[in-house]
Amino acid sequence: MSDKAEIMGRLKKSVETWDVKLAESAAKEALAAGIAPGEAVEKGLGKGMETISKQFDDAKIFLPQVLAASQAMEKALKVFEPVMTKGASAMRGTVVIATVLGDIHEIGKNVVAAMLKGAGYNVIDLGRDVAPEKFIEAAKENKADVVGASALMTTTVVVQKDIVDLLKEEKVKVKTIFGGAPANEEWVKSIGGDKYCPSGAEAVEMVNSLVR
Ligand code: B12
Fold first, then answer.
1. Nearest CA to ligand 1 atom 44
2. CATH annotation of 94-211
3. CA 201 to chain centre
4. Which terminus of the chain faces fewer neighbouring Cβ atoms within 10 Å, N or C?
5. Residues 165 and 146 sit within 8 Å (Cβ to Cβ)
């Protein structure tokens, strides 16, 4: 059996080299080796995406390569998802989650959704490019405990504020949690949100604290 560090290395490399086949096989290897999917995502695939982000920032690679890297990551996530979401028994609460209007980045949101499902939450995933009104509608309809919104761009992070404002306007009593690269604790505080979450690793514990 392969060593854990080697498998993590292969997961990272699969994203860095946008190798969809390697992503799938390394993900299967990780499961066979008993590596927790959350750890494989954060410390394997996620590290690969960090390299991609850096290379993109430095103009060493361009959008097609970022897209290809995303496809590798998504392939591996498909392998992990059934395991991450299995065992959802006693429902701990309902979370409405989506990526905000104007923003199509969904990998991070998908990771968080899978982790929450795995932790026993009823997750209503509205997808990406979702208007504030849709978040509010879904929160009301499903009597959600928490609304979570992801925004990956400085141009779309402002929509997180629109969500808080609309929830207040419509008097929907629900906790809010926000994430994505341009968000931070200060921002979430300034818009009147409840929690800022920097990574999937912390998402479950943070949502637990909100529904407690
Ligand atoms: C992959 C990627 C893409 C992929 C997305 C594929 C997909 N299916 O999602 C593709 C190639 C499609 C893409 C497109 C674009 N992208 Co892009 N992309 C990225 C990149 C490199 C990585 C994002 C990612 O998936 N990371 C991996 C995941 C696992 O991490 P994450 O998203 O941060 O999520 C974690 C945490 O943040 C947290 N979290 C996130 N959301 C939430 C929500 C909740 C509720 C909680 C609890 C936690 C949480 O938990 C997650 C799991 O750990 C980023 C760089 C970066 N630094 O983020 C640029 C980046 C976000 N993109 C950028 C841009 C500009 C674009 C485009 C506009 C490019 C273009 N010219 O067309 C388009 C977007 C069009 C649109 N309208 O949305 C810029 C944004 C700049 C800005 N204005 O702020 C970035 C920062 C790159 C850069 N440095 O310029 N992109």
1. 179
2. 3.40.50.280
3. 10
4. C
5. no
pLDDT above 90 coverage of the chain, percent: 88
Q: Largest alpha-carbon pair distance within the chain?
A: 56
Q: Which CATH architecture has domain 4-85?
A: Orthogonal Bundle (1.10)
The model scores a pTM over 0.70 = yes
Burial class (CB in 10 A: 0-12, 13-18, 19+), 139: buried
Question: What are the residue ranges spanned by the domains of the chain?
Answer: 4-85, 94-211
Q: What pLDDT is attached to residue 1? A: 52
> How far is 151 from 162, CA to CA, in rounded Å?
12
The tokens of 115 are what? 């982790």
User: Which of 192, 191, 105, 190 is closest to 150 using CA atoms?
Assistant: 105
Query: Where does 86-199 have alpha helices with state H?
Result: 107-118, 132-141, 158-169, 185-191
